[in-house]
Amino acid sequence: MIYDLYKAMFYLEDLREILRKNTPFNLDEKDKKEFNKILKETIQTLDKLNLESIDDGSSIRYISDKIEIRTREEEFINIDPIQAGGRLTPEARKVLISYGDGYSVCDNCFKPFRLDCIKKPPIQEFISELAEFLNMDDVRVVRGARNGFQIVANALLNKNDIVLISSLSHYTLALSIESMGAVWKEIPAGKNNVVTAEETAKKIEKVKEETGKLPKLVAIDHIDYNYGNEHDVYGISRVCKDYEIPFLYNGAYTVGIMPVDGKKIGSDFIVGSGHKSMASPAPTGVLATTDEFKDVVFKTTKQKGDITGRKFGIKEPYLLGCTVMGAPLVAMIASFPKVKERVKNWNEEIKKSNFFISEFLKIKGNKVSSELPRKHTLTRVDTNESFDKIAKKHKRKGFFLYDELNARKITGLFPGSSKNFKLNTYGLNWDQIKYLSSSFIDIAEKYGLDVE
Ligand SMILES: *Cc1c(COP(=O)(O)O)cnc(C)c1O
Fold this sequence. Notes:
This protein is α/β, with parallel strands linked by helices.
């Protein structure tokens, strides 16, 4: 079914190509014939298409040599930890088709020649709504959360400055600091894997004692990528205020799936990821800030050419001028109305996450490494005493679990992992959640594990 759909869609693209090649002229006889031939094949393909159609092998599998058609989201329940919040809305997918050409958003870029000032498509409007959505004073779309860190690091840090991150921070945060020749140091998450205000204050004092200076920045994930635990960003931001250290809130796993209020958190910077949590294509992200810092991170160019006297208007150096262009940006805008709505359903997502986990824990030996009850849809589980015991005896070793899930049309686990793994239930409906739960139980029972 999905392959037939793709086949028809690709025919339509081929028709579109004939129009592009001939504009502004009418099609000649040869192209007319070609057009009609493809149109006929399209119609035949669509005619054949029905919900019961089984794949008879006549459909295509590749877009072009070696590039396979991707059908993961149509054929599977996908619990891949990083992919759940970045699945596109249909609006975003349509944008990809229409705005795919390189600098497509530049059609109507007029003075002052900056991406965030473009009115058509409505980028300017989006930017101001985005700031409101995050309750921050100003915002820019950037090339992923990591580029948001990089921009802040560029603007704030000098060589050998110290930045506090946590022992659970994402590697891209550490690299952005290292890239500036600055030094990252870790606030320990402790044995329950939660970063606290108290440990943050301790670490600030320690750095002060050892180096005689304060950290230049504290950057903490609200939800970390490893356990999906919630860290005390509210308390940490208060500690930062006391020491007058800027605080960066990393919302890669929050902005776009749960409500985030920058003023309430008291953050100086909010970084989010479009492709992780805002139903957007890569590479997209957001960097929001306050009136106090907007002229620091979004400062405009001041230099001019020594020979030519050239100046570059109001371009922003740390952003390298215009950031995310074309299809990824417009798709992000197209998804935004649904993103704004979906954050209001966060409580329901938490309910589903906890329901799944409670079912998962009925399998004897299964454990959860993340905090309980779950406050997020990303969870790390420990199956050393359950599925891994089977893996040890199975001819496919750890791959057996992947195979069994795959056979049940569930994907997203790292192939071969049977000891511990992460999964994300975000966006699954109740039927899918129940199916997911019973599938794990099914597999457990098949291999003789006790189920409560
Ligand atoms: C995924 C992730 C990032 C990186 O996000 P990109 O948008 O891909 O740059 C940063 N921090 C955390 C906590 C993440 O989970």
